[in-house]
Amino acid sequence: MSYHVAAAGDSPPEWLAKADVIVVDPPRKGLEAALTAKLISCASAGAVRSVPRRLMYLSCGFEALTRDLDLLLGSGAWRLRHAHVFLFFPGTDSLETLVVLEECGREE
Q1: More confident: 80 or 47
Q2: For the residues of 9-59, what is the DSSP string, one character each?
Q3: Model confidence, pTM
Q4: Is residue 80 part of a domain?
Q5: Residue 60 is among the residues annotated as catalytic for this protein
Q6: Catalytic residue (one of 60, 64, 71, 98)
Q7: Could you tell me the CATH number of the domain that includes residue 91?
């Protein structure tokens, strides 16, 4: 197991290469374009799969999450496995959403 801390747009091909599962907790603006593009480009027809088999996305920005999911799910590279909303801060309207995506083509 390895653990990497970096901006999600910093060289995604390097740290995605051997990952089975990645966990992202982006700021309210959502995933960086470089990471989203890498996750989607790996789904092109005939491309060698080099993406993790599972993506766990924790979001505090629901609008950015829906935008990122539109791109990831719409690409055909990923499918939704699970989604759950958490109220970590009672008395506020701040919600955290955990979404688990699975690489298409993988059966469990």
Answers
A1: 80
A2: TS-HHHHHTT-SEEEE---TT-S-HHHHHHHHHTTSTTPPP-S-SEEEEEE
A3: 0.81
A4: yes
A5: yes
A6: 60
A7: 3.40.50.150
